[in-house]
Structures are given as C-alpha cells and as structure tokens.
Amino acid sequence: xxxxxxxxxxxxxxxxxxxxxxxxxxxxxxxxxxxxxxxxxxxxxxxxxxxxxxxxxxxxxxxxxxxxxxxxxxxxxxxxxxxxxxxxxxxxxxxxxxxxxxxxxxxxxxxxxxxxxxxxxxxxxxxxxxxxxxxxxxxxxxxxxxxxxxxxxxxxxxxxxxxxxxxxxxxxxxxxxxxxxxxxxxxxxxxxxxxxxxxxxxxxxxxxxxxxxxxxxxxxxxxxxxxxxxxxxxxxxxxxxxxxxxxxxxxxxxxxxxxxxxxxxxxxxxxxxxxxxxxxxxxxxxxxxxxxxxxxxxxxxxxxxxxxxxxxxxxxxxxxxxxxxxxxxxxxxxxxxxxxxxxxxxxxxxxxxxxxxxxxxxxxxxxxxxxxxxxxxxxxxxxxxxxxxxxxxxxxxxxxxxxxxxxxxxxxxxxxxxxxxxxxxxxxxxxxx
Length: 433
What we know:
This protein is 50% helix and 15% strand.
C-alpha cells in the first residue's frame, strides 16, 4: 500500500495534517522571531566600543605634542568623555572632556548616535522604528499568522466543499427528487459516503418505480377478469347460469386469486425484513420429483447423489420450481425435462421445454414483473409474475436464474436455477478415513 493511501482515504487525517502543518509552521516562525528579538535585545544591551583612531595633539604653533592611537573609553550618559592615547614609544596619555550641557532627550540621542557616544546608538539609528523590538516581533508574528491562515484555508475549504455538495443533494433527495446523484471524487470517507448515497438513491428510485409499475400493472390485470365477471353477470340477467358459464366464472375467480397471491408474495419478497418462512435443509431431488410427477415431466438426476440439499424455505423453493414447470408447460409443444445435479460446488436445476424458445434480446426482460413476450398476452393463463417471482426467490437464497438455449441444440428454452449447497455438502463427499 502506498504511503499516500491513508491520507487520501481518511478525511480526518488530512484535516489533522493541515492543522498540524499550519501549527508547525507557525511555531517555527514564532521561534525564529523570538530568537531574532532576543538577539536584537542582547546587541542593544552590550556597550558599544568604537574602534581605535589616529590622534594628534598640537600646540598653538602647530608642533606635535602627542601622536598615537586613541580609543574612547565607555562612559555613562551625562558623564564626560575620556580618550586614551598610546604613543609608538609606549607612553599613555589620557584626554578628558567635560560633560556637555543638558539638551533635549531626542536631540541628545541623535547627536550621540551620530558621534557614537551612546552604546548601541549606531545599531538603533540604522533600523526602522517598526522593526525594533518588540514591534518587529509582533509585526512578524502577525504576518506569519495571516500567511498560515491563508495557506490552510484552501485545503480545508476543498474538503468541505464536497460535504456541502452532499448536503444539498441529500436535501433535494428528501424533497422528492429521486434522480439526484452526488459526484464521486477521491477515495476518502466523503467519496465513500457519496458512493453509498448514490447506491442507496438508485435502490430507492428503482424500488419506487417498481412499486409504481406493480400497482399500474396489477390494476390492469385485475381489471380484466373483473370485467369479464361483470359482463357475465349482466348477461345472466338473474337467470340460472349454465355449466359452461359457471366454469368461466370459476376460471376468472381462480385467475384473480392467483394474481392477488403472486402480488402479495412479490411484495413480501421485496421487503427484506418480511418473514417468508423457516429456513431449513431442503432436498432438491425429492422436491423436483414431486413437482415433476404433478405435471408429468421427466426427471434426470444424472450422477448426483440420492439427495442434494440446500438451505432455504421449502415452500418458496417449491413455488420457484412450480413456476418454472408451469411456464414450460404453457409454451412447450413436447416433453419437459428437469435435470438436477451438482455443478461447480452448487446445486443446479434445469427446466427445459420444446417450445418456440426465447429470443436472446428478451432473455433478461422476461424476468421483469408483468412482462410477457410479444404475442403471448392472449395465451391461456399467466399474468407475467411467475418468472419474476422465481428470480426474487433465487435472490433470497443467494442463488441465480437465467434462460439459455437447450444444451442439445434442439428448439426450445432451458431455465437454469442455481443455489448454494448446504454446508455439509459444499465441500463434496467426505474422504474415507
């Protein structure tokens, strides 16, 4: 893993790093400014010792009385000046000057600065007022503080802009705009939250659209048998119904009952928290044998053992297999074959018919609720929920279902239901001890 990954994936680390970096820069700047102020203070406290100069003392006639190197000795303010002159012969002479008359403090400070009489005067006069301690320290500290604030602000602002975008999107989503999505940028917590929000928003939008479609299609499907029943009752006119008419009424009532039952089951399967039955070990071979006997279909277990068990709700698995068999019987013009075997560590059930088959472009759409192949609307039986229920039941059991061509290449369709095996059989037959 790259060293930058923790910081790119953790928002709090990036904010912490920005704050710590800013504080570190500020601390270093304050330390440097403090050191600079202390050095200035130390230099101003040290006495100023002017360098030695050649000095010549002459009489009124111009004769040289004393000649040598003169050095001004340090003295307190208000005292006289004293110069020490050393001649080349080694003699030392002292020249003393009386104190000057009192003058204004500012004028005296300026004159002493020019003549070098006051300790540190040369250093104080050469520096601007606002750079002298403590003003220079305060100015420098303020400038550094502003620089750090300006440098940290873009980093923090860039991180919080995405949070504001997410906040506005959530607000729009809460107001009813289910199509709103958040840009997914980066790899940190905000990006992960954006991805989760987009996924949740898409699921909610699909669920709402599915419920709207279910309601609209259910209303349409319920209206058809109700209309036929109403028309039949009007044609009766209070007379005793004939056996054929009674059979038609019973068929329409059975169709209504089946539609209501499938709609309720689809709603329970969509609601993940709904209780749809007890999970137990189910023998797929036995279950397939019972359902094949009901519709007179051929069962082929191949090389599978006597039992092939999966964890699931028995009534749901039975309903899925029954829907596949009824769908095959509705469209098949010949025999129906059911194959139950183990494949790649999973249980697989194949229901193959000899009907017209399903075009490749329709093999996913036929699992949508209330969708039927073109021209199949008027066929006897079926409301378009059978295969949708099979996919929902397979999803509840961590399985899959799909449609494909027959393995033997003949005409017809083959629906394949795949389910995970029970734990005891998932690893295959036990080895002999």
